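User: Could you check the structure of this?
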Amino acid sequence: MDKAVFFDRDGVLNREIGDYVCKPEDFEILPDAVETMKDAMDLGYKIFVITNQGGIGKRLYTKEILKQIHAILIEACNKQGVVITEIFYCPHHPVRSNCICRKPNSLMLEKALAKYNIDPALSWMIGDTGRDMEAAAAAGVRGYLINPNSLKHEFLKML
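Assistant: Sure, the predicted structure tokens are below.
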């Protein structure tokens, strides 16, 4: 089995600018994000992004816009030799529909664990909210809570 680091997106990999990043031009990757992913990858971890994107469910932006935003992240990572194995996102918002994938539920993590044969006991979820930590715990993955917009390398000492 492989091991993985699951990164929340908003506030962890990119600057949180309010409730939603609705346009590609508003997507700002945080300074240490790609380097931190690279360091984890160099230690043998697969890299995933696990993100709630309720703005889709609220019709603030589309899946196509989200794809453009994620392309920015993927391109920045590729330039540094980082491979994001997959980005899992939940497009639902509780005001429009109930779902079982939105964090703090663990379905996105569980899908990644099963699809890629990941050992949860060897894996981490890096997040900036309690719901990220709840999802990690429910999936059997260790959680590491950071302050929003402040991803640093300290957690790498724990890997």
